[in-house]
Amino acid sequence: MRVVLIGPPGAGKGTYSEYFTKKYCIPHISTGDIFRAEVAKKSELGLKVKEYLDRGELVPDEIVVEVVKRRLSEPDTKRGFILDGFPRTIKQAQELEKITPLDAAIHIYISEEEAVRRLSNRYVCPVCGRVYNLTYNPPKNDLTCDYDGAKLVRRSDDEPEVIRRRYQVYYQTFSPIIEYYKEKRLLVEIDNTIGSDKGIPLLERILVDKGILRIKPCVT
Ligand code: AMP
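Above: the input record for the complex with adenosine monophosphate. Below: its predicted structure, written as tokens.
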């Protein structure tokens, strides 16, 4: 199952990734996570990319492609992989084709309004970091953490105006990539307004029916 995962903030990409990585033992490879870890380690690569991350700019294609190429040569990708945050440019998409064949580009989407509704309902505990959602996973008592009683707060990037901006920026970057995979007939789309509980089994069925998901679960 060699797939690229595309989804705007709040669409549920994290929940989908977690399900497939656990059930099928394939790695979730996020270029953003790789870069953040390298920056934290202050490695040579980290020092090279830090200024781009700090400015919110794209890391040059040559660097990202090299990182992905190296990561995809590791043995844990034998059964497949879920690439997240890559490719972000057509050049990266073309280079990826030279590295490995892809089975699908999966676009999990919700509307901008729905993204605002979901993410502005998200609260975190400033003490233990637990995440709550007032709709799906509310705290037992009003806006306080179930575990330590701390007053829950909203992350600054979960404010409605910031969510709208993140959503629009996401599609400015990824719309050409979605088009690219549509033309290649690799695009699989899931409207996750129905929620991940229903969306995940639906996607799994589609992937099996299309012959994209050919591996057996690694856990029972
Ligand atoms: P993300 O967590 O995917 O939003 O990525 C965080 C940051 O890492 C981005 O703002 C970019 O600076 C960098 N980055 C991650 N993936 C890529 C990519 N495919 N191409 C260029 N830069 C990237």
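Notes for the reader.
The pocket of adenosine monophosphate is lined by residues 31-32, 35, 52-53, 56-59, 64, 85-88, 92 (CB under 6 Å).
The mean pLDDT is 95.
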